[in-house]
Amino acid sequence: MRDFALFTVIVMAGTGGELCVSRAMKSVGEATSFRPAEVVRVIRRAFRQPWMWAGIFMMALAFFALLGALSLYNVSFVVPVTALSYVAGAVGGVIFLHEQVSFQRWMGVLLVAIGVALVFFGKN
């Protein structure tokens, strides 16, 4: 049960953070050039977005949960199981960001999910 809870926090907080940052950056817009003044302008606008701060908080939570997982389990187990974030990212992108995901991408997501299940339930 502890395994499930820890990896759920890693996947959900990490993916949630990425979705929040993506939402913030979509509202900020892209940098028109890579001149220092333009980059600073975009960064300032990004840090005024509440979604950015929510994303940073969630990604930090996921990072510290990942550190905990790495202190308990082998990296050969932790890294493949956290790949479930690809599945959560695709689902979150559709629901939260209203993105379109092609059939081929869904098949890729399914393969990742099958791989994660094999690693998680086959651990010693």
Query: What proportion of the residues form beta strands (DSSP E)?
Result: under 5%
- Over all CA atoms, what is the radius of gyration? 17 Å
Query: What integer is the average pLDDT?
Result: 93
* Structural domain tally: 1
Helix content: over 70%
Reading the helices and strands in chain order gives: HHHHHH
Sheet with the most strands, sense and barrel status: none
Our count of helices gives 6
Task: List segments where confidence is low: pLDDT < 50 over at least 5 consecutive residues.
Answer: none
Give the N-to-C terminal Cα separation.
15 Å
**Count of strand segments:** 0
Structural class: mainly alpha
User: What spatial form do the alpha-carbon principal axes imply?
Assistant: globular
Architecture overview:
There is one protein chain. The protein is 81% helix and 0% strand. The chain has 124 residues and is mainly α. It has one domain. It is globular and about 50 Å long. The two termini are 15 Å apart. The model has no long low-confidence stretch (mean pLDDT 93).
Topology of helices and strands:
Elements: H1 2-28, H2 36-46, H3 50-72, H4 75-82, H5 84-96, H6 103-121
Helix pairs in contact: 1-3, 1-5, 4-6, 5-6
Keywords for this entry:
single chain; 124 residues; 0% strand
Question: Quick gist of this model?
Answer:
This protein is mainly α and 124 residues long. It has one domain (2-121). It has helices at 2-28, 36-46, 50-72, 75-82, 84-96, 103-121.
